[in-house]
Design a protein that fits this description.
The protein has helices at about 20-35, 50-80, 135-150, 195-205, 250-255, 265-300, 305-325, 340-360, 365-380, 385-390, 395-415, 425-430; strands at about 1-5, 15-20, 85-95, 105-110, 125-130, 150-155, 165-175, 175-190, 210-215, 230-245, 420-425. By secondary structure, the protein is α+β, with helices and mostly antiparallel strands. The protein has three domains: about 1-110, Trigger factor ribosome-binding domain (Alpha-Beta Plaits, 2-Layer Sandwich); about 125-140 and about 260-430, Trigger factor, domain 2, CATH 1.10.3120; about 150-245, Chitinase A, domain 3 (Roll). The strands form three sheets. Strands 6, 7, 8, 9 and 10 form a five-stranded antiparallel sheet that branches. Strands 1-2-4-3 form a four-stranded antiparallel sheet, sandwiched between helices. A hairpin with a 7-residue loop joins strand 1 (about 1-5) and strand 2. Helix 3 packs across helix 6 (about 265-300), helix 7 packs across helix 8 and helix 9 crosses helix 11. The two termini are about 65 Å apart. The model has no long low-confidence stretch (mean pLDDT about 90).
Length: about 425
């Protein structure tokens, strides 16, 4: 047996040539057939009394396949251990054409994990976004919370931007209806962009009970190819026009946010506390992305295709589950693993780099760090102690907290060893509200 590096596209590919004695296979086949014969049921024979030749006729191919597979697996495992190879994924077993009467020959083709020599991060720069939560940020957040609780009341006037309309409409192209162009009791939010611009423009100024007919030109990149760039006509009847009404900033509003006594000052304290936790989480996520990008830049490694394929498959499966959780029919929507290849490569690279960094620099999560993460998360619930107990009774959830603590250690190490620069960030930008 020998191991050789493949000179093909991947420097991580290896090959092992293996020879297995046919006599050993035949011996194992007989042993398997004897075990099968003790319990096999066959018409005309009592259990355990079926002649071995009949058992061999029915189960011989199965026993031979199993014996051969076990022998190849054993030979491969022994060779991997003897050469101290770290196999990534599963080997591809290729039978050799040239075999003798005494033995069968195979080649195992597989990938190994790359050897990682950590790069120097001292020349890397990491921007550390900063933001202090003050009254202005609290005011903006309260305003968002008010908008989330918007009520709609009869407008009593022509439709304006921000209004909610309930309409019936009929669309036609050259006098003929087209698929998807008709609806009843359809809700439209003017200014939301949910409809093509010409449709919303045609509804602006309409009054309740009025019927209007107007032209609509679909964008050239419209998802329905037969309508893209085409001009059609819509006949629309406005059945209801409602305008938004924000809730008053009073005790009732405070109670809607969980402040039982309706105290507005206490409400602001609660909002600020929750906002500070959210801002902290987003700032940490930003700097973490910076750190990961910097680590990738100084550690350009090749990764096993087997690991990338497995990661991409898992990401595709997660996407299907997410769609199903949202009530969508994922079965009829093809989701290809290849769509996630670039993300999978990044994840696998980071996983290998982080594992080596944590091992070399002793950055494993400490129990007190994990507990601090769990406690912080629990503060967002009514009964934090119960949440903490739940976390520590769920190994999978606790493992997520441990992974987060380890990543935080990596970030702290990077900030201490690279060039860290503070960079103020606006509240709207951080929260994704920037225009």
């Amino acid at each position: 047996m020998q191991t050789q590096e493949n000179t093909g596209a991947s420097a991580l590919e290896r090959r092992i040539d293996m020879a297995i004695a046919k006599a050993e296979i035949d011996k194992e086949v007989q042993q398997r057939l004897h075990r099968i014969s003790k319990s096999v049921k066959m018409a005309g024979f009592r259990p355990g009394k079926v002649p071995l030749n009949l058992v061999a006729q029915q189960y011989g191919p199965q026993a031979h396949s199993e014996a051969l597979g076990a022998a190849v697996e054993k030979a491969f495992s022994e060779q991997v251990r003897s050469q101290n190879l770290r196999v990534a994924g599963y080997p591809r077993i290729e039978p050799k054409a040239a075999t003798s009467e005494e033995q069968m020959e195979f080649t195992a083709v597989f990938e190994v994990y790359p050897e990682i020599k950590l790069g120097d991060v001292s020349g890397s720069t990491v921007e550390r976004a900063t933001l202090t939560v003050g009254d202005a940020e609290v005011d903006k957040t309260i305003e968002v919370l008010r908008k989330q609780r918007t009520a709609y009341v009869p407008a009593g006037r022509p439709a304006e931007q921000g209004d909610r309309l309930t309409v019936d409409f009929k669309g036609s192209q050259n006098g003929e209806p087209f698929p998807g162009g008709t609806a009843s009791d359809f809700a439209v939010m003017l200014g939301s962009g949910m409809m093509v611009p010409d449709f919303e423009k045609g509804l602006t100024g309409i009054t309740e009970g009025e019927t209007k007919t107007f032209d609509v030109t679909f964008p050239a990149d419209y998802h329905a190819a037969d309508l893209a760039g085409q001009t059609v006509q819509f006949e629309v009847t406005a059945k209801k026009i409602e305008m938004p009404k924000l809730p008053e900033l009073d005790a009732d509003f405070a109670r809607s946010l969980g402040i039982k006594d309706g105290d507005l000052a206490r409400m602001r304290e609660e909002v600020k506390g929750n906002l500070e936790r959210e801002v902290k989480k987003r700032l940490q996520a930003r700097v973490k992305n910076q750190v990961m990008d910097a680590l990738l830049a100084v550690n350009d490694i090749e990764v096993p295709k087997a690991l990338v394929d497995a990661e991409a498959q898992q990401m595709a499966e997660n996407a299907r589950k997410d769609m199903q959780a949202r009530g969508m029919d994922a079965k009829n929507m093809p989701i290809e693993a290849s769509w996630f290849t670039d993300q999978a490569v990044r994840r696998v690279k980071l996983g290998l780099i982080l594992a080596e960094l944590v091992r070399e620099k002793d950055l494993n999560a400490k129990p007190e760090q994990v507990r601090a993460i769990v406690d912080d998360y629990a503060q967002t619930f009514e009964d934090p102690k119960e949440v903490v107990r739940w976390y520590y009774s769920q190994p999978q959830r606790l493992a997520e907290a441990e992974a987060l603590a380890m990543e935080n250690n990596v970030v702290d190490w990077m900030l201490a060893n690279a060039k860290a620069e503070d960079k103020p960030v606006s509240f709207d930008e951080l929260m994704g509200n920037a225009a």
